[in-house]
Specification:
about 80 residues, mainly alpha, about 80% helix, about 0% strand
Length: about 80
């Protein structure tokens, strides 16, 4: 079955469904898929930026990263 056909069949099934529990489950599945797609886009963008930073030499040694992290933790005001 092709994507368009599947969408049509799913729409027909949803429109005939009156059980709120089943409709909630379908909604949750589709919502989760949408959120996963959004996160994938964000993570891909971050990975591409990281690769650009590495190529441009914008990197820290382990020691520099630890020092920077410790400084940030010390300056952070915990509530």
């Amino acid at each position: 079955m092709k994507v368009g056909e599947m969408k049509n069949e799913i729409q027909k099934l949803v429109e005939t469904q009156s059980d709120p529990t089943i409709l909630q489950r379908v909604y949750e599945i589709l919502e989760q898929a949408q959120q996963e797609a959004a996160w994938k886009e964000v993570m891909t963008a971050r990975a591409l930026k990281a690769e650009e930073d590495i190529k441009a030499g914008r990197v820290y040694t382990l020691e520099e990263a630890l020092k920077k992290s410790n400084e940030n933790l010390k300056s952070h005001k915990w509530r």
